[in-house]
Amino acid sequence: MSGEPTVIYHAANLQQAHILKGVLEERGIASWIVNDNIQVAGGGLPLGWTAAAMVSVGQSDAIEARQIAEEFDQTTAHDPTSDPPAIEPPPPATWKEWPACPRCQTPRQARCPICGTAGTEFPLADLEETPEGPRVLLICATCDDHFRPEFFRLCHQCGYDYGDGIAVTGPHSPSDYGTRGWIVLAGLLLGTLALAAYFVMLWR
């Protein structure tokens, strides 16, 4: 090594200093590391500028070594250990042409045929224009499957009849309750009359 030792680089850590030392030696420049023992004792903790690992070369090689160190610093300016920024997933697409009730403007309720979940806010999975009309695939949040929506015939808000779709029928319609009520009432009346006739027969 020629001339007095000259510090040409303050490394962020001991590993970076050793890498630069290897680069310099590949260029034929002898170098050594200062404060390497302090860095080891500190366990890689930030001990301050005076404890930073430094790369030194001979005074006659200082100018060329500093140029090499600057090139090295530019290529290692990013933190190799930092995690890449998290990429937020895009928000789920929505079907802009979702049909709405012409009377109350409420979105028409659809049903997932796979699990039976009903709603009006299923995210859009795919939309393909066909000669028969748009082919829509939605995503069900319950079963996490793609499906072609099945729409209900009646508006769940105001009862408007679309003329097609799933007809919701309960086990008993209002007319059923009326008919059954009359049957029950007639049965009670007949039972009362029969009981009265029985007591009349007893008291004769």
Architecture overview:
Mean pLDDT is 79; it is low at 38-49 and 172-177. The protein is an alpha+beta fold and 204 residues long. The radius of gyration is 42 Å and the shape is elongated. The chain is built from four helices and nine strands; from the N terminus they run βαβαβαββββββα. The strands form three sheets. A three-stranded antiparallel beta sheet has the order 1-3-2, with helices on one face. It has helices spanning 14-26, 36-41, 62-75, 174-202, and strands spanning 5-10, 31-34, 54-58, 110-111, 118-119, 124-130, 133-139, 146-147, 150-151.
What brief labels describe this structure?
single chain, 204 residues, alpha+beta, three-stranded antiparallel β-sheet, 4 helices, 18% strand, elongated
The portion of residues forming beta strands comes to: 15-25%
Coarse shape: elongated
**What is the ordering of alpha helices and beta strands?**
EHEHEHEEEEEEH
Tell me the span between the first and last alpha carbons.
Answer: 142 Å
- Give the neighbour order of strands across the main sheet: 1-3-2
- Outline the low-pLDDT stretches: 38-49, 172-177
Give the proportion of residues in helices: 25-40%
Q: State the total count of DSSP E strands.
A: 9
Continuous helix count: 4
Structural class: alpha+beta
User: Which radius of gyration do the C-alpha atoms yield?
Assistant: 42 Å
Question: What order do the helices and strands come in, and which of them pair?
Answer:
Blueprint lengths: L4 E6 L3 H13 L4 E4 L1 H6 L12 E5 L3 H14 L34 E2 L6 E2 L4 E7 L2 E7 L6 E2 L2 E2 L22 H29 L2
Antiparallel strand pairs: 1-3, 2-3, 4-5, 4-9, 6-7, 7-8
